[in-house]
Amino acid sequence: MVQLGSVAGAIIAMKSVDFFGRLRALQVVCIIWLIGVSIQVSSHSVGQLFAGRFIEGLAIGQTTSIGPVYMSEVAPSPIRGMANCIFAGAVYLGIMLGYFSNYGSALHIPAMLSDGSVNDTQWRVTFCSKFIMAGFIFITSFFWCVESPRWLLKHDKSQEAIDKLSKLRNLPTDHPYIVAEISDINEQVMAEKEAARSSSLISNFKQIFTVKSIAYRLIIIGGGSQVLGQWSGANAVTIYASELFSLVGVTGIDKLKMSAVLGVVKFFSAYFAAFFLIDILGRKRSLYIGICGQMLCLLYYAIFLNLVPEAAEGVAINDHAKRASTGALAAIFLSGTFWTIGFNSIQYLIGNEIFPLGIRSFAQSIIMVLHFANQYGNSKAMPKLMLAMHSFGAFYFFVGVLCVALVWAFFLPELKGRSLESIEEVFTLPWYDLRRCNKLVPDHSQIHKVKYTNSRRNTGFENIHFDLEQNKHSVEMIENSEATNTNNDARRSSGEEDDEKKGQ
């Protein structure tokens, strides 16, 4: 029910994220989330529980549009990938806490009461843990978060946008970096207003499906990331982790313990990818590493189930197969690691980079509808898939999907370090040239003409003028800090002393 509610939530986000703004939409979602959890915790019937789960899904579906869009719009371009991967890693923070909550409740709260009745406290306690995160996000959003400057400029709130961007960058409002970034955003906002006078749902749908470049981005890039990612086997491993552990000989409460450990592995590997890979290696290299690693791990797991059929049948594994079963156990953990490095790193990021500002949140909402629809379909299909194709056949299928994903990834553009406003120019290229976009369409945004330097000679900001004809750039110092002025005064004094010596 949560996944069905999430599909509906993603549809609602098509309008709510632009109507309320990124920050207010997040706060409204937290209230919906708290209402859904309250209904679940107080449930006395299955119908009430399902209703609470569906309402919770309405909130969750919107967060996957709000969070990535907001992070993309407020983060500086050099760390935009990291910021979005922090959001993706937070998903696994929730999964990890959920696994440990289940394990802790099963370990310390008896499932049955002394009179033989079911102990509802065991599952109610796990549900109560959701209050902590929803409440924390709601309260801190009033103190730590500011509205997206790009959304403010789109809605003609220029001065507020400058103030918010200044606060985000921790720079004065008249700073060259702030001026350059506002200039880039304004340029795109004005261009979009010239191209489209209306921002209704109908006009957005028309733009997305009639403009070939945008349709390609939505269907092939955004849709492909969700379909291939969700059917690559990672979702099946997350949802049915305890059942998969039982296939390699893990039994009893140890299955919940191993599931919790899997949550820890995914959480830390997601943040490793965020801080050390996505903005350093780039989107495509991280994706290649993730897909190849995940494919090898799932291939090993499939071969193990194929060659050791007694494991899938629940029969005790012979001594000669125990080492292989240990390898299969490791393959599950490693597949989760490579998933977070690969598909998980880009499934929330890519949709927020490739679309223009006017339809960014709308298009991201459509992509998230595909995300949750495929997630729901995958979770329902997995048990039947394992029965129809045997356990090993299902994982051979996932390996095949990952092979297709490698070909798909080859044609993706590398958007590392580009400003959001410059990405639109990338998609003027034919689809087969997108992978060479950085050579064919360099990023000449105003923001890249301002570069911070900190050396013994110069401390300040440089204004870099790029000469397209000569393919060279000249550098002009912008004296906008006390340190810069001090250094310049020192150089002048030194020059005057030299002149005096020469005169003598």
Automatic annotation (TrEMBL):
<feature type="transmembrane region" description="Helical">
    <location>
        <begin position="393"/>
        <end position="412"/>
    </location>
</feature>
<dbReference type="GO" id="GO:0005351">
    <property type="term" value="F:carbohydrate:proton symporter activity"/>
</dbReference>
<protein>
    <submittedName>
        <fullName>Mlp1 protein</fullName>
    </submittedName>
</protein>
<feature type="compositionally biased region" description="Basic and acidic residues">
    <location>
        <begin position="489"/>
        <end position="504"/>
    </location>
</feature>
<feature type="transmembrane region" description="Helical">
    <location>
        <begin position="23"/>
        <end position="43"/>
    </location>
</feature>
<dbReference type="InterPro" id="IPR005828">
    <property type="entry name" value="MFS_sugar_transport-like"/>
</dbReference>
<feature type="transmembrane region" description="Helical">
    <location>
        <begin position="328"/>
        <end position="350"/>
    </location>
</feature>
<dbReference type="InterPro" id="IPR003663">
    <property type="entry name" value="Sugar/inositol_transpt"/>
</dbReference>
<feature type="region of interest" description="Disordered">
    <location>
        <begin position="480"/>
        <end position="504"/>
    </location>
</feature>
<feature type="transmembrane region" description="Helical">
    <location>
        <begin position="123"/>
        <end position="146"/>
    </location>
</feature>
<feature type="transmembrane region" description="Helical">
    <location>
        <begin position="82"/>
        <end position="103"/>
    </location>
</feature>
<dbReference type="InterPro" id="IPR050360">
    <property type="entry name" value="MFS_Sugar_Transporters"/>
</dbReference>
<dbReference type="InterPro" id="IPR005829">
    <property type="entry name" value="Sugar_transporter_CS"/>
</dbReference>
<keyword id="KW-0813">Transport</keyword>
<dbReference type="GO" id="GO:0016020">
    <property type="term" value="C:membrane"/>
</dbReference>
<feature type="transmembrane region" description="Helical">
    <location>
        <begin position="49"/>
        <end position="70"/>
    </location>
</feature>
<keyword id="KW-0472">Membrane</keyword>
<feature type="domain" description="Major facilitator superfamily (MFS) profile">
    <location>
        <begin position="1"/>
        <end position="417"/>
    </location>
</feature>
<comment type="similarity">
    <text>Belongs to the major facilitator superfamily. Sugar transporter (TC 2.A.1.1) family.</text>
</comment>
<feature type="transmembrane region" description="Helical">
    <location>
        <begin position="260"/>
        <end position="280"/>
    </location>
</feature>
<feature type="transmembrane region" description="Helical">
    <location>
        <begin position="287"/>
        <end position="308"/>
    </location>
</feature>
<dbReference type="Pfam" id="PF00083">
    <property type="entry name" value="Sugar_tr"/>
</dbReference>
<dbReference type="InterPro" id="IPR036259">
    <property type="entry name" value="MFS_trans_sf"/>
</dbReference>
<dbReference type="InterPro" id="IPR020846">
    <property type="entry name" value="MFS_dom"/>
</dbReference>
<keyword id="KW-0812">Transmembrane</keyword>
<keyword id="KW-1133">Transmembrane helix</keyword>
